[in-house]
Amino acid sequence: MAKYPADLAIIVRELLEREKIAAPDLRLITSFLEVIYFVSLKTEESEHVRCWVTFLNPKDPDSNPPFRRRADRWSVVRLVSRIPFDTRNLVKFAPAADPWSTAVAVYHDQGKLYIWGLVDQMVHTSTSFGEGITAKLLGPRLVLRHR
Prior knowledge:
With 147 residues, the chain is α+β, with helices and mostly antiparallel strands.
């Protein structure tokens, strides 16, 4: 019998390792997926919460930038201070990030997950996702979308 999200966390970690992407601790992946799952069950002002969440290192968000940046390329908007990444905070924060074009940037420090910014101009990626909860490896980052 499957034990969500622990079994899914193992699959995600294996996928990251297969793609030669530095994978965080299994416990962090599990916590990340738990928050995403519980947010998918919530509503905010009678509307289902819809968001993209990306696990992205704030010290190096664009580890492989192009030689020439296009005007419509994605960019990062940093928050003034970190917000703990938990169900309550993501439910409140998600409406600030239009799920069509913006992802919530999450990372970890000392075993705790936190929201540190927004990734804007994800429209081109948005067109390649289907409905429901989907995951995709985009360069060095994993993006989860609940729609």
